[in-house]
Design brief:
It contains 3 helices and 2 strands. It is of the alpha+beta class. β1, α1 and β2 form a beta-alpha-beta unit.
Length: 88
Protein backbone atom coordinates (compact mmCIF):
# COMPACT_ATOMS: atom_id res chain seq x y z
CA UNK A 1 0.00 0.00 0.00
CA UNK A 2 2.65 2.56 0.91
CA UNK A 3 5.70 3.12 3.00
CA UNK A 4 5.26 2.49 6.69
CA UNK A 5 6.13 5.46 8.90
CA UNK A 6 8.87 4.59 11.38
CA UNK A 7 9.56 7.30 13.98
CA UNK A 8 13.18 7.80 15.01
CA UNK A 9 14.11 8.35 18.64
CA UNK A 10 17.73 9.48 18.66
CA UNK A 11 19.98 10.17 21.64
CA UNK A 12 18.87 13.82 21.77
CA UNK A 13 15.16 13.03 22.03
CA UNK A 14 13.60 13.20 25.50
CA UNK A 15 12.02 9.77 24.88
CA UNK A 16 15.50 8.26 24.75
CA UNK A 17 16.10 9.23 28.38
CA UNK A 18 12.98 8.10 30.20
CA UNK A 19 13.40 6.51 33.60
CA UNK A 20 11.19 5.96 36.64
CA UNK A 21 13.93 7.69 38.68
CA UNK A 22 13.52 11.09 37.00
CA UNK A 23 12.38 13.98 39.19
CA UNK A 24 8.69 14.95 39.21
CA UNK A 25 7.53 16.13 35.78
CA UNK A 26 4.65 18.43 34.83
CA UNK A 27 3.94 18.57 31.08
CA UNK A 28 1.68 21.36 29.79
CA UNK A 29 0.76 21.97 26.17
CA UNK A 30 -1.88 23.89 24.33
CA UNK A 31 -4.91 22.62 22.49
CA UNK A 32 -4.00 19.87 19.98
CA UNK A 33 -5.57 22.01 17.23
CA UNK A 34 -3.57 25.14 18.15
CA UNK A 35 -0.21 24.07 19.60
CA UNK A 36 2.92 23.00 17.70
CA UNK A 37 1.89 20.07 15.46
CA UNK A 38 2.05 16.76 17.35
CA UNK A 39 3.43 18.38 20.54
CA UNK A 40 0.40 17.48 22.72
CA UNK A 41 0.50 13.89 21.41
CA UNK A 42 4.25 13.64 22.06
CA UNK A 43 3.79 14.86 25.63
CA UNK A 44 0.89 12.47 26.24
CA UNK A 45 3.02 9.59 24.92
CA UNK A 46 5.92 10.59 27.17
CA UNK A 47 3.62 10.76 30.22
CA UNK A 48 2.06 7.38 29.40
CA UNK A 49 5.50 5.83 28.92
CA UNK A 50 6.73 7.18 32.26
CA UNK A 51 3.60 5.95 34.02
CA UNK A 52 4.08 2.51 32.49
CA UNK A 53 7.66 2.50 33.86
CA UNK A 54 6.37 3.29 37.33
CA UNK A 55 7.34 6.97 37.50
CA UNK A 56 5.54 8.24 40.63
CA UNK A 57 5.02 11.93 39.79
CA UNK A 58 4.09 12.67 36.18
CA UNK A 59 1.21 14.88 35.04
CA UNK A 60 0.26 15.88 31.51
CA UNK A 61 -2.25 18.63 30.68
CA UNK A 62 -3.53 20.07 27.41
CA UNK A 63 -5.07 23.53 27.79
CA UNK A 64 -8.15 23.82 25.62
CA UNK A 65 -8.23 26.87 23.38
CA UNK A 66 -4.58 27.76 23.98
CA UNK A 67 -1.71 27.87 21.51
CA UNK A 68 1.88 27.06 22.54
CA UNK A 69 2.62 30.45 24.11
CA UNK A 70 -0.84 30.72 25.63
CA UNK A 71 -0.35 27.43 27.44
CA UNK A 72 2.89 28.77 28.93
CA UNK A 73 1.20 31.96 30.10
CA UNK A 74 -1.80 30.10 31.56
CA UNK A 75 -0.25 27.22 33.48
CA UNK A 76 0.44 28.97 36.81
CA UNK A 77 -2.47 27.26 38.60
CA UNK A 78 -1.27 23.85 37.37
CA UNK A 79 2.27 24.58 38.59
CA UNK A 80 1.04 25.72 42.00
CA UNK A 81 -1.13 22.63 42.41
CA UNK A 82 1.64 20.28 41.22
CA UNK A 83 4.16 21.78 43.64
CA UNK A 84 1.59 21.81 46.44
CA UNK A 85 1.02 18.08 45.92
CA UNK A 86 4.74 17.37 46.01
CA UNK A 87 5.57 19.62 48.94
CA UNK A 88 2.35 18.78 50.75
Amino acid sequence: PGERYQPVVDELAPLAHLSPDLPPILLVTGDPERDIPARPAENAFMAASLKAMGHPHIECHHLSGHDHGGAFRSCDVLIERFLGTLLG
